[in-house]
Specification:
The structure holds 2 protein chains of 2 kinds. By secondary structure, chain A is of the alpha+beta class. Chain A contains 19 helices and 15 strands. Chain A is 37% helix and 19% strand. In chain A, a hairpin with a 2-residue loop joins strand 3 and strand 4. Chain B starts with a helix and ends in a 13-residue tail after the last helix. The chains are: A alpha+beta, B alpha+beta. The complex binds iron/sulfur cluster (3 copies).
């Protein structure tokens, strides 16, 4: 709005509604607590508050607009997007929010295309939305924004640490898959719930944002992507310590070396061996500390606030739930300074993670002391452990999967579908990484690695077992997730809204 | 905001002086809200002059009058805000 002249009464009404929004109010009322907590400066406080206000205002404007329509469908959404000069994706994101907040219901309408002989079976093609709008006083709808305690108490927390990294009064802690809240300090602003990938996650919308695929137009078990390669590093310092192909580390190496980033976030071992902790990397020397897969859950994004300061360029290396959280925050941007600094999302594959306690149990099964372990690896359906004096033991994954975190059972993503570039070992021969390029940012980064002669790269089609294996295992994870979510629903337990 | 929705072009909040509030520190809490609203008005393109808080004690009649005159002057300098369209019923 640039001048008072263009303001309408309806606009003022939406402003008033937004001011009554529970989340905006919580932030206004707790200004002193937030400033005193020292995490955000007064300027940052106001910019978060006004960004949140603007987003809420847009959301309520869409809601009021839908209310005035006899039929609310895609046409109407397009009309709203034109009227307000908004990208249609933005309108969808507001729509998703309204749905998550129980203010609207969306039904998807499909056309059935009849079978054309054996080869092309009948299929359903999306036609339109049918949107049903809540018409009573919205203040009667219970706010969904609660502290994320309800997420970790329901055993569906991914352990990503985002909530703890952004909480304006710093009253959350996430450590190796467990959460803790200081209720006396909490101002119930709901920001943690807003950024959490296990409260609600607009998966369809995220796929829309990731849909850059030049070759494959359809969403697959490994998400949307542009290209897939098998690759390994040529950087000696990295190949000496890396688990497989060392590509994630090489990305950071390039980014630091060419001043593309000021910091990176990753995981390193803490003083307790095999218990990882988040690490803020400041230069390429720090990369060595992060090498190797950790298997125990690490709340990488817990330390987001460490670069709240001025404008930085940051890369994050993390598991799929961490990438989901970052993409969600791009879509629902409320101006958290640290999140806005993230410029590169480097995802790694993750089948499941363990708590430190379960890892101790696995060691018991294998009769190995945890301090003797040099390396762990999941491969060919087995969990391998290599000791410092060169011994190797293994146990079939099936026998230990009950020890994995229950929280990870509701996770559908193996390959970091929300990342710019995803790296893992499944699909490539030993000593190599499978690399999935998903966005233009990821593509440019990968091309630079090749141009600077930092990696050796082949199309995935040239290696065995290749993509079919990766697609298959990703499918297993997706099916497992569906099954577990249904089981939880049957027991009336909380599940993430995907 | 209610006042603006019902047709006001400006709102003056006249309260007792700091430390003299009969209701604890309600006056200072309001002050915080007013300060925020003024910032918000600026943010969304409405003149912050449309909302002001004045502090004066019960006996300070002149000050009260001056406050009212002050906001009237400021708001009169601004164009009227949009009013709710009357619906026929
Ligand atoms: S725990 Fe969540 S609701 Fe409570 S203050 Fe922190 S971010 Fe806000
Ligand atoms: S999933 Fe992440 S953001 Fe959500 S509660 Fe767990 S650690 Fe916090
Ligand atoms: S399985 Fe999913 S939720 Fe669990 S650590 Fe891996 S990516 Fe995160």
């Amino acid at each position: 709005m640039d001048s008072e002249g263009s303001i309408t009464w309806e606009y003022l009404k939406n402003v008033a509604d937004t001011l009554n929004s529970y989340r905006v109010r919580a932030l206004i009322d707790a200004k002193d607590e937030i400033i005193n907590a020292g995490r955000y400066s007064e300027d940052q406080y106001y910019s978060i508050l006004f960004k949140m206000f603007d987003e809420e205002l847009l959301k309520y404007s869409l809601f009021e607009f839908l209310k005035t329509q006899p039929i609310a469908n895609i046409e109407i959404l397009k009309e709203f997007s034109q009227k307000n000069s908004l990208d249609i994706k933005k309108v969808y994101s507001l729509l998703e929010l309204l749905r998550s907040e129980n203010l609207i219901k969306i039904e998807e309408v499909y056309d059935e295309i009849e079978a054309q002989g054996e080869e092309t079976p009948s299929k359903l093609v999306f036609r339109d939305f049918k949107i049903e709008v809540y018409r009573e006083d919205i203040s009667l709808v219970k706010s969904i924004y609660e502290p994320v305690e309800i997420i970790f108490d329901s055993n569906i927390c991914s352990g990503c640490g985002t909530c703890a990294g952004v909480c304006p009064v710093n009253c959350l802690n996430i450590y190796n898959g467990f959460g803790q809240i200081d209720k006396d300090k909490c101002i119930r602003c709901g920001i943690c719930y807003y950024v959490c990938p296990r409260s609600y996650l607009p998966v369809k919308l995220m796929n829309m944002y990731q849909d850059n695929a030049s070759k494959i137009k359809e969403y697959t078990n490994i998400g949307n992507f542009i290209e897939v390669y098998s690759a390994r590093t040529k950087v000696k310092e990295i190949s000496e310590v890396c688990q497989d192909g060392g590509i994630a580390s090489t990305c950071l190496y390039y980014l630091f070396d060419n001043q593309k980033i000021d910091f990176a976030l990753g995981a390193k071992m803490s003083n307790t061996i095999w218990r990882p902790e988040p690490l803020l990397l400041q230069n390429k020397k720090d990369i060595i500390q992060t090498a190797g897969t950790k298997y125990v859950n690490n709340p990488t994004l817990r330390i987001l606030n460490e670069f709240n300061g001025s404008n930085h360029s940051v890369a994050v290396v993390g598991v799929p739930c961490i990438m989901q959280s970052l993409l969600k925050s791009e879509i629902y941007n409320i101006g958290i300074p640290s999140l806005n600094n993230v410029k590169y999302k480097i995802g790694i594959f993750c089948m499941e993670s363990f708590s430190y306690q379960s890892l101790l149990k696995i060691c018991e099964v294998l009769k190995i002391a945890i301090n003797d372990i040099k390396k762990m690896d999941i491969n060919k359906g087995k969990f391998f452990v290599y000791t410092n004096n060169g011994e190797e033991s293994s146990v079939p994954i099936k026998e230990i999967s009950h020890l994995a975190r229950e929280d990870c059972e509701v996770c559908f993503d193996l390959t970091s579908e929300s990342a710019d570039i995803s790296v893992g070992s499944i699909g490539s021969p030993s000593g190599w990484n499978t690399v999935i390029i998903r966005t233009e940012t990821g593509k440019k980064l990968y091309e630079s690695l090749i141009a600077k002669d930092l990696i050796e790269s082949k199309p995935i089609e040239e290696v065995k077992p290749g993509l079919p294996m990766l697609q298959k295992i990703a499918g297993i994870k997706k099916n497992g997730c569906k099954k577990h979510i249904n089981e939880k629903k049957e027991k009336n337990l909380r599940v993430p809204i995907y | 905001m209610e006042a603006f929705l019902n047709g006001a072009d400006g709102v003056a909040i006249i309260s007792c002086r700091e430390g003299e509030c009969n209701f604890g520190d309600a006056n200072m809490n309001t002050y915080k809200h007013v300060k925020f609203l003024r910032k918000l008005f600026e943010h969304i393109g409405i003149s912050p002059d449309r909302i002001q808080q004045y502090f004066c004690a019960a006996a300070e009649v002149e000050k009260f009058v001056a406050s009212v005159e002050d906001i009237t002057k400021k708001v009169q300098a601004l164009p009227p805000l949009p009013k709710r369209k009357l619906t026929p019923n």
